From TrEMBL:
<keyword id="KW-0663">Pyridoxal phosphate</keyword>
<protein>
    <submittedName>
        <fullName>Diaminopimelate decarboxylase</fullName>
    </submittedName>
</protein>
<dbReference type="InterPro" id="IPR009006">
    <property type="entry name" value="Ala_racemase/Decarboxylase_C"/>
</dbReference>
<dbReference type="Pfam" id="PF00278">
    <property type="entry name" value="Orn_DAP_Arg_deC"/>
</dbReference>
<dbReference type="InterPro" id="IPR022643">
    <property type="entry name" value="De-COase2_C"/>
</dbReference>
<feature type="domain" description="Orn/DAP/Arg decarboxylase 2 N-terminal">
    <location>
        <begin position="33"/>
        <end position="280"/>
    </location>
</feature>
<dbReference type="Pfam" id="PF02784">
    <property type="entry name" value="Orn_Arg_deC_N"/>
</dbReference>
<keyword id="KW-0456">Lyase</keyword>
<dbReference type="InterPro" id="IPR022644">
    <property type="entry name" value="De-COase2_N"/>
</dbReference>
<dbReference type="InterPro" id="IPR029066">
    <property type="entry name" value="PLP-binding_barrel"/>
</dbReference>
<dbReference type="GO" id="GO:0009089">
    <property type="term" value="P:lysine biosynthetic process via diaminopimelate"/>
</dbReference>
<feature type="active site" description="Proton donor">
    <location>
        <position position="344"/>
    </location>
</feature>
<dbReference type="InterPro" id="IPR002986">
    <property type="entry name" value="DAP_deCOOHase_LysA"/>
</dbReference>
<dbReference type="InterPro" id="IPR000183">
    <property type="entry name" value="Orn/DAP/Arg_de-COase"/>
</dbReference>
<keyword id="KW-0210">Decarboxylase</keyword>
<comment type="similarity">
    <text>Belongs to the Orn/Lys/Arg decarboxylase class-II family.</text>
</comment>
<feature type="modified residue" description="N6-(pyridoxal phosphate)lysine">
    <location>
        <position position="57"/>
    </location>
</feature>
Length: 416
């Protein structure tokens, strides 16, 4: 079988890069990021107020944020340091959505200081926020959790009933009334009901629920609904045979529901927001790593210089990440390998029982689709250091956008 999925970087380019940046490192493709962001904006251009707020947690790097900002995106933050990433780049006000949960007081303080749009995860956060910052902002959003199961055409996509996020429907009505009494003037609705969905029906089905709720909320409380935030959850095909969501079809699907539900209710001015992370960045990053050992015991093992500390998804969720051996894109996949990192944990495997071309020590492996929730989920277990991040620029040049950690970084927080 030949490869259906090709890396955005060639073996020759990798060999140049490793002279400057030792493996492992995460590599990002500026061209891919920009082209995709433009398609997203085009898909929702029918909505005059549309905006994608990039989920910063997916790839919290200022260089990446800057590219997306240039393409018109705002930023979705969920923690103090993510807000600080915005602050240091001069991103403020309506450019920031603050969607967090179990929120510490200091996070609300900075969100309010920056003028971010605050998305409340719980009804009790109304009092908590008011006590913390001394007022209720005029523009405010509430996160909805319908409970039960989220189904599309009788297929269960996820179970919001088990999720810790958001408010129940009765709480949404109550929250809006309380917030209005406390001076809120413009409202948003937010919900995140399923993750990594590759069906084109997810956003339209979610939009249908949220638009109906918006009409009810508006009619019963009189609240002015300014925007509806469809949040994240649009997936990417991690497997070579996976379906790539058709963002134009998704945008069109949301438009139809908008015309069907909001427009007849006199709510044709509602702005649509999204808060995607994975769809914006996932395919446009990869982890470049080198084979440093081969081991033949009960199975065949390829030991690479990256480990789960550089990419946690396979170890944490058993997630599939496609692997390409650089320069062997068209070689037959006739060897069965486990590709492992060096953690003292047997789940530190990037691939298990994977058919790949014959691999030699010194070969470079490209682990695909690490642009979102890749480096970001890194950690220091076993004393492993987090890797560099490198940007492959549109003009073909490369730029170090985060250096690799050194032992000094590791020791910096210790007290000897
Ligand atoms: C994680 C997250 C996102 C982004 O999710 P993706 O699956 O990466 O699109 C958006 N909004 C919130 C509140 C999140 O927690």
């Amino acid at each position: 079988m030949t490869e259906a999925k090709r890396p955005f970087v060639t073996k020759e380019r990798i060999e140049e890069l490793v002279k400057k940046y030792p493996t492992p490192f995460h590599l990002y493709d500026e061209r891919g990021i920009r082209e995709n962001a433009r398609r997203v904006n085009e898909a929702f251009a029918w909505n005059g107020g549309y905006r994608e707020f990039f989920a910063v947690k997916a790839t919290p790097n200022p260089a990446i944020m800057q590219i997306l900002r240039e393409e018109g995106c705002g930023m979705d933050c969920s923690s103090l340091t993510e807000l600080m990433l915005c602050e240091r780049q001069g991103i403020t006000g309506g450019e920031i959505m603050f969607s967090s949960n179990d929120t510490p007081a200091e996070d609300f303080v900075l969100a309010a200081k920056l003028g971010a749009t605050i998305n409340l995860d719980d009804i009790t956060h109304i009092n908590f926020l008011e006590k913390t910052i001394g007022y209720i902002p005029e523009t405010i959003c509430c996160r909805f959790n319908p409970g039960g199961y989220f189904e599309i055409q009788n297929t269960i996509m996820d179970s919001p009933g088990d999720a810790k996020y958001g408010m129940t429907k009765p709480q949404m009505f109550q929250a809006y009334r309380i917030l209005m009494e406390k001076g809120a003037k413009e409202f948003g609705i937010h919900a995140f009901l399923a993750s990594n969905t590759t069906t084109d029906d997810y956003y339209p089905a979610l939009a249908m629920q949220l638009f109906r709720l918006a009409v009810e909320l508006h009619e019963e409380t009189g609240a002015h609904i300014g925007f509806i935030n469809l949040s994240g959850g649009v997936g990417i095909p991690y497997r070579p045979d996976g379906h790539k969501p058709d963002i134009m079809a998704i945008g069109e699907g949301v438009r139809k529901v908008y015309e069907q539900i909001l427009v007849p209710a006199g709510m044709g001015d509602v702005r649509i927001f999204t808060e995607m992370g994975r769809y914006m960045l996932g395919p446009y990053g990869c982890l470049v790593t080198k084979c440093i050992h081969q081991k033949h015991i009960h199975k065949e093992y390829i030991g690479v210089d990256a480990c789960a500390c550089n990419l946690m998804r396979p170890a944490m969720y058993g997630a599939y990440h496609h692997v390409t051996v650089a320069g062997k894109e068209d070689a037959p996949c006739d060897h069965l390998y486990d590709v492992t990192g060096g953690l003292c944990e047997n789940n530190d495997k990037f691939a298990t029982d994977r058919w790949l071309p014959a691999i030699n020590v010194g070969d470079y492996l490209v682990i695909h689709d690490t642009g979102a929730h890749g480096h970001a989920m890194g950690y220091n277990y076993n004393g492993k250091l987090r890797s560099a991040e490198v940007l492959l620029c549109e003009d073909g040049s490369d730029r170090l956008i985060r250096r690799a950690e050194t032992p000094d970084d590791y020791f910096a927080t210790l007290n000897f």
